[in-house]
Amino acid sequence: MSELLQLFIWIPFVGLLVGFFVPSKNERIISGIAIANLSVYLLGLVAFLVYWTLNDFPVLDRKHIVLFETDNMAFFIDYYFDKLTAVFSVVGAFVALLVNIFSRYYIHRDEGFKRFFSTIMLFFLGYNIMVFSGNFETFFVGWEILGICSFLLIAFYRDRYLPVKNSLKVISIYRVGDICLMLAMWMSHHLWHQNITFLKLNDANLVTEHLQANGGYPVFIAAMFLIAAAVKSAQLPFSSWLPRAMEGPTTSSAIFYGSLSVHLGVFLLLRTYPYWESMAAIKTSVIVLGIVTSLVANGIARVQSSVKVQIAYSSIAQIGLMFIEVGLDFHILALVHFAGNAFLRTYQLLVSPSVMSYLIHNMVFNFVPKNQSNVNSIYGKLKNSIYMLSIKEWNLDFLLQKFLWNPFKWAGRQLNFLTSRTFAFLFVTIIIVLLYFYFSPEIPEVIVTFSPMLFSLFGLLFVLRAFVEKANALTAWSLLLAGQVCITLSVALLNPKFGLGQVSIYLSGILLSSLLGYYVLLKIRKVDNDISLNRFHGYVYEQPKLGFLFLLSCLGFVALPLTPAFVGIDILFSQIFKHEMGIIICTSCSFLVMEISVLRIYARIFMGQSKRTDHAMAYRSS
Amino acid sequence: MSSFAFDEKHVLHELWHFLPTQTPLRDFIHHNSLHAFQDMKFFDAIFKASKIFGYQVTLELRDFRKLYEIGRIREHILEQVIAKRKGTESIGEWKAKLLTGDYNELNEPRIGNLRKHWREAYQLDMDSLVQPLLFRILCSYLDQGISLWDFPNKPEGFLASLRQLENNSFTSFFKTKRAKKMLMDGQYTIAQLLKMVVGDEAFFEQYVFDQQFSHRGWSGMVATVEERPDTLLDTKIISLHDLIIFELLLEIDTLDYHFGSDWKPLCTDINNKPVDLFGDVPATELNEVFTLWQEAFEWSYYDEVLAGIKASNSATPFGGKGATSFQAMFCIDERECSIRRHIEKVDANCVTFGTPGFFTVEFYFLPQGGKFYDKLCPAPVTPKYLIKEFGVHGHRQHEMLYTNKTHTLVPGFISTLSLGFAAAGRLFQNIFRPKMSPAISNAFTHMNKHSQLTIENKNLDDRENDLQIGFTVEEMAARAEGMLRGIGLTENFAPLVYLVAHGSSSANNPHHGAHDCGACSGRPGSVNAKVMSFMLNHVAVRELLNQRGINIPNETQFVGGLHDTAADEVEFYDEQILSEANRAGHLKNKIAFENALDLNAKERSRRFASIKTKNGLKTIRKAIKDRSVSLFEPRPELGHGTNSLCIVGGRNLTKDLFLDRRAFLNSYNYKTDLDGKFLTGIMKPLGPVCGGINLEYYFSRVDNHKLGAGTKLPHHVMGLIGVANSVDGDLRPGLPLQMIEVHDPVRLLIIVEHFPEVVLKTIQSVPEMYEWFINEWVHLMVLNPETKTFHYFKEGSFTEYTPLVQVIPALNDVNAFIESAKEMKTNYIVHATQENLPVHTLN
Lengths: 622, 843
Prior knowledge:
The complex is a heterodimer.
Chain A: H1 7-20, H2 27-54, E1 60-69, E2 74-81, H3 83-106, H4 113-132, H5 136-154, H6 161-192, H7 198-201, H8 204-213, H9 217-232, H10 241-244, H11 250-259, H12 264-276, H13 280-303, H14 307-327, H15 331-350, H16 355-366, H17 378-391, H18 396-414, H19 420-439, H20 445-468, H21 473-494, H22 500-528, H23 544-557, H24 565-574, H25 581-606
Chain B: H1 8-18, H2 42-53, H3 61-69, H4 75-86, H5 91-100, H6 117-122, H7 126-142, H8 158-167, H9 177-185, H10 190-197, H11 204-213, H12 216-227, H13 240-259, H14 285-312, E1 327-330, H15 336-346, E2 351-354, E3 364-366, E4 374-375, E5 385-390, H16 410-432, E6 452-453, E7 463-464, E8 467-469, H17 473-487, E9 496-503, H18 526-537, H19 539-547, E10 557-564, E11 569-572, H20 580-605, H21 617-628, E12 645-649, E13 657-658, E14 663-667, H22 677-683, H23 687-702, E15 716-718, E16 722-724, H24 737-740, E17 749-753, H25 756-764, H26 767-774, E18 779-783, E19 790-794, E20 797-801, E21 810-811, H27 814-820, H28 829-832, E22 840-842
Parallel strand pairs in B: 1-2, 1-9, 3-5, 5-8, 9-10, 12-14, 12-17, 17-18, 21-22
Antiparallel strand pairs in B: 3-4, 5-6, 7-8, 10-11, 13-22, 15-16, 18-19, 19-20
Helix pairs in contact in B: 4-14, 7-13, 9-13, 10-13, 15-20, 17-19, 20-21
């Protein structure tokens, strides 16, 4: 029975692949493939559920494919099926099918018709990988795919400023969740000394034993889960990304931010519940986070004068309640709540344009002028204060910018005095020194001890400098590559067992992607010799193919599941020991900033308003 | 900007003049998007607007060249246009320029150049820092009913409300103290604030324009609400002045936050001189090339139409061979052009007329239980009458899924667990079996079919809010006479005369007001049809009409109706008053209407990808109806897309022509109005109404980003007053992409059947009307009814025009022709224009 699980990954994958090769003007075929695919999926799922029910709801687990293996670690794809999977997959497939049929008419004649369906199918694939995943590695594959789909759909109208700006904003916040998951995976590698599957998490004895043996580390892991879940489900303090994600066509907002994507934080919490069930601190945090979020989000929803934003915040408030339910062990309720909320918000978002005529019609017959009494009392003042804070979304957007990103920007700017030449010099020196030691018979002890940290730090410096680079995209791209090399070297030096083979698994993917990136940037530079990063260039208007190539190279570069680098990054992390705090902080900061820098280059060069003003173009404020 | 002194009142007035004047979407009224430039000649105006504001005002050069390649722009027309403008000897030279000339088309507008120094010199992205909060506060203040917790609003206005809020709270919208203090102080003028922010007074005006045009959607909305507070049901007091003050304070706040209080005004170290935004725009060869292309594009179509009229203008003016079976009046709306053709085909003995869809009765309408009046007449008219609805049974249904209580915490929790699952079912149902629901705007619910109206006024003291309730007999007779004489129907009345108004049903469509009747201020015209029918059936009115020479036979009865142009359904009013004989006739006519609607639906279906035009009539009819109630359908109908003609004259001009639903048809009989007395009344609204519609489509088509609303798909409904693309984005006035993609951007050609000298006198009689023609915002052609020659109006006089096209193809079977028509490949103009069918004569 468990061998059937992979079907639910293969079906959307085949749909995505086939759809990809249909010419973009064949709307009927493109949407037809997606709808047929989802119908087959849903029918298959229902049949499977019947079979599963007849077998009395067994929990299924299946190791699908081992991608990489050494004595102390293995990277494998694992599928899993239980009641949680059942609910999420059924709701997901149902909503996805309806939204796809809806979109077939709704997106008709949009320039990005094919882009839309491809991205939605990719999303559905990622969603299924997450929902059916049996271990963290598999889960993470889906998680990353989802993040990138979000980026692409928010920036669906890529020739306008605000969608592009907001897509970068959202992916930056998502990236925090990515890093938390990576850290959780890293730590659990070291604690379990094996790739833990979700099945094993259900083994109470095993978990108890593990918790007792490892002191405070498991709390760290659980805290990382919680942050990742809060990011994905737009809980405090990350909530402000959700309304800003509503930039794409209404149907994509509905499926992503109304229903499926935004509930995956709840999924993560439910999935890892056996692990943190006994940790009072985490449990309390989940509940408190849920309470605070639902109260604050409720306030913000009440003052909203834009329909979609109102739905976004009311959904956040309901998800806050789901967090409470999960924390209090009302899991069935949480699942029912999830399904109800997903359906309701999807529907409300889809019909959000109708609100205009419905509410106005209502008003014509039922309007009562409000009696505005504004008493100058403490209560009145408090009420006004909450009103104003809610209008400002409790400054969440501003605070995230200030406390999360500005420090990195500040740090990067401190490096501005170092010109790109200095960096090139530095990089070459590093390589020469390294080669020298590689060929010299004996390496001094000091070097062995300090070099990993040093390289890790260099890596971070390169990446930070790239993050604030304004003058030239090629410089930024080179700095990022240098950063990648340094990070890999630091890990390689740290662990002598980390062989050339493993290094090459990682670097081969990175190098390939970066070469492609160089090629594209050089071609673009030829157009008008301006590839600065202090403005949007919108080259996708003139060069859509190069834009797509560069997007691929970006995804490969940040080790998304396109090249072997994807497996490499996991191996890389697993080689950093749990006590190497300095290196793990540097490395995770580097990866945090790296993806954002890479997508920033893509966005600045290819998206936004085109430089050619000979055609109709949108205002910056639209 | 001749003097450097800053005159606040003048600048505010100028701003108001140039900002978009779109009212909240509930009252969507078409107008010329560049109305501020209407005192100039069309081409001078558009190129000036383009230079100042960066609008794209024609198609792109490469588009024109492709249109020429595919033959949509005809070679001999192009040559004629060049010859007229540049002289015959220059044809070769200019043709080469048009076809192969190399021009720099990059446009660097004047607007925005001053404020970009914030970014360049101060490294400060002022717009991104100020606008999101500003828009949110504005939207919350103006919100009509989305939020559950309203802006604490004071009747003294926007700034007073802000002051009160800031005063009574522990927090602030501002990040720093100084700006808040200045707001509380309340004494600062715009000039004083500008002094702080900008410094040099010479730059004040340019700065304010830059600032307000960086979000022209919101500024335009504020200016419109200031001008017409009654356009909001929940009235709010706001002014451009308040908006500018608050925005400047937010800018000071931002500067204080980033630089402390120690920053220099923007223009301290500026080297450039202030730009005269509205200074003359030098003529360029590129603009001449655009002018020639645009005219060639327009005349390639017009010429064909004129040739068609010439070829077909021979049929008998009225009816078929037998006695007239019935007469029907429709709105002049170009969407009714095809239904008239079909009904005449179905019943060869019927006669149709076109008249503005408010049927010459102007009033406010109060639906039963309603709390607000709806204006039901053209936008510029201010009625003095009120018509009230009564006698309706049954209540309007509610839709639980739409109540905003679902957005609160505890009710939200409960509704999520219950309604959530209902929503899944509802979505499923709407996708597979769409049907009408309370949330869909339904043209037929504008007025209840069985309701009664207070039409007749028997007591002049019957007044409400300074409006007279109903019309006196004399007032009714005057309006009835006006309408009948206008369309030339003063004799030969059939036993049944229909007055068919129109409206449009659509789902999930914030712009649905733009689909309803333009002559009724963007509402369905059902009430007007019912009111006018009542008047014409009124015995005392008929007596008065009789005294004035219009003798309506006793057996003739008038019946009001409403045609839903999206669903292709029709409904009739007061059928119970029909006499025995007429009831039988009416039943027969209803079948004719149904058959005509079937054919009309088929003709429309050729543009809809979801419907196969070759399907059976009833299948198509059902599919058309489903579209109007489908949530997923962003194009329930195509509105006024493709409108390009307005023909004032007898039906004989157009009856045997296939015009592909592109012509406004206003019935008019010059013979009954030789001195043009009624012509003034007919032609006066043609500019603002038909010309306004046409130009709004024109500009939304050529620049859908800046002058149109962009694609509908990502729209957010903001405060029930407008749409925006993004949470932090500006309002988007204009028409969405889905409405304009079939439209060919050509100006309206008005063709009037009369003598040139009478028409000249008529248009010159009203300066506002004359402006439309003399400045070429619409074209005017007169067809001399005696000589059958065309005369084109230019530079104040008429010159004869002979169509170049000689042969107009003939059609034997419209249906077969419709079935064979191809659907556009994409909505790119070169593909889209091929969906618009050429003129044919009908056999």
